[in-house]
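Q: My labmate handed me this sequence with no annotations at all. I'd like to see what the chain might look like in three dimensions before we decide whether it's worth expressing. Could you predict it?
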Amino acid sequence: MNLALPPRGSASQGHDAPPTSRGIVTSTQGSSLADVLERVLDKGIVIAGDISVSVASTELLNIRIRLLISSVDKAREIGINWWENNPHFSAQSKELTETNRLLLERVESLESELKSLRQASVRDLPNSTSDSLDLLLKDL
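A: Here is what I predict for the chain of 140 residues:
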């Protein structure tokens, strides 16, 4: 007993049907994962949902979920390109982190210098109003 399936892409209606270069895809034939993934990335898919948690008609939690799955080209086509300007996803990430670290060190240095200048100026100020009057009279 020889049971042979017709090759993929050929018509399976009868023995005399000529093979076709492209068969009609039906739900019984199925699709490979690669075919499904190619279609999803080419067209894109949006999954949206809302989750709400309420107790005694008082809303405690509301979560809105929006998920877009598409190829990079399709995302750019519809105006989504957040990864291009995000420093965590670019080559400039390390450079920006290093620049930020250097700036923070500089700010700390300037703050400590300002603090020491303030302490020095407080020590040089006269202790009382009579001392300040004496200094003014000497200057005159």
